Amino acid sequence: MSAFTASAVEIHESGDSAVRVVAVSEDPERNWETVHRLAGWLDTCDAEGLHGAVPTYDSVLVEFDPAAVSAKQLSAFVQLGLQQLDTGSPAGPRHFEVPVVYGGEFGPDLDDVAAQQGITADEVIALHSAKSYTIRCMGAPAGSPMMDGPDFPQPVPRLKDPRLSVPAGSIAVAGRQAVISPAVSPGGWCVIGRTPLTVLDLGRDPLVPYRPGDTLRFRRISQEEFDGYAGRYLEAQLPELQQPESQQMEAAR
Amino acid sequence: MNGRIVVEQPGNSVVTDLGRHRGPRFGLPVNGALDQFSARAANILAGNPDNAPLIEVTALDFRMRPDRDLLIAVTGSPLTLTVGGREQSQWEPVSVRAGEAVSIRGIHGGLRAYLAIHGSVDAPLLMGSCTPDTVIGFGLKLGEGTVLDIRRSVAPLRQPYLDLPLFRLGLQRPAMGPELLVDVTDGPDVAEFGESAGLLFEAGYTVSGRSNHIGLRLGGRLPERLSTAEVLSRGVPVGAVEVPNREELLVLHRGRGVTAGYPVLAVATSMGLDALAQARPGDVVRFRKTTVAEATQAYRAAMAQLDALRKTVTTVFTLLGVGGEPQWRELPPGIAI
Predict the structure, then answer these.
(1) Residues B88 and B112 in one domain
(2) Cα A129 to Cα B142: distance, rounded to the nearest angstrom
(3) Shortest Cα–Cα distance, B300 to chain A (Å)
(4) pTM for the full predicted model
(5) Are both B52 and B154 inside the same structural domain?
């Protein structure tokens, strides 16, 4: 893996308690990695007055206590952090497999998405479960794993009337993005399926098992299988099941 | 068995603290007391750490009854505070005898009151904070008959000589009323609104009834975004002023979803957010432009006031035999009432 070089950033004032740091290179992947590595560095520092960092795609919101640190000091600290970012490869991603019942009451928008894309519902399912997704960031509400969406022909429009309540475990798509809803919440995304696994558990720390950078794949199951997973948690696959590609190739030889 | 407080009339009340600062990185809003200054002041006046769990009462009347002598303090919106039927002052430590009702009625001028109890109350924690999260369904919302466990009791405090008020605190109480002045700084996306950004400072905005801890909706003349390009989701600060539609301005408060894709026109200052926490539907909000440096200075001045208050309270409590670790009367476990 080639050494990592952080993107250049712009730091924007965002009130007296936050700054927005935006990575501005031409390469979205490098920008994403820059803001996530920076957030990781800030978390590790656990500096006095620093509340936390919220990284998404090309930006990270850094929140702080203005009684302890000023926006100016914080910005200088961020610049320092950028120079300190680990240039090696990040900790290996973990992999998650998510069983999903598609369509019907579990995925009420599946047929609409198919119609809108001009493909069949089975093709929507095939595309959605075809690729391995990288979790880009944690979204609202409540630790939703935000992912670059399936390879649909077109972006998926949001619902005209957002739902007041979407069940926990709902699998949804919108625009060019895909997500799992870990908790019951309102939602304007198209729900195409649901996983029987528990994703968010208030009794656990961390609340959700994945972090940005981890990978995730959806696997179609039948409606009859849904109840068989009841009470089970979404957990990372065991290490032996996620061999690096090189080893897989060796095994194939 | 510890001491207990029974909530007799919950109104709209929760047990909260200063917020879940570890939450946002996992997609959970920070939440916490919406009027942070009042919440800190209540805890300080009750001899607690600033971040101790306390009761936030929003708009509606509230009543509770303890089975032990307590020391409490009530801050926030103007209201009528009675203990055992006797009217008591806000923004002061108040003694409650076992069995007396503590009643908060007629919240007016502002919207939220804070009731701190010396020694605090037991509340479940998530990531180190008891503040409720309505999205994931966490937190202690108080209902009729809810029992709160307390760990400490304080015999009634009296000024030993002339029974004069215990404190001459000189604490400047936050201004409240139907006309609010809220300081904001330019948001990171102010340029996207061109000249229309200036509209924010020209006339008042009326607080809509659809406002809550997630955000306040305000009616008035709306700045308009010049471009319609989609924005990548990104973290939005508490206090973000956005124009999500043609009808209303949105000011995000502490319950805000952590990420969103709307451009941020302006950001309310920490002190401005405290003022907004007390805004009632129909109140008029005027925005005033400030700088981050000035806002930081204003915030630090307010915190310095609270520091001074903490010193005074510690001194007085120590003199009265309440202050200092050894003098707290810990209620031993295992003793029935």
Answers:
(1) yes
(2) 44
(3) 5
(4) 0.89
(5) yes
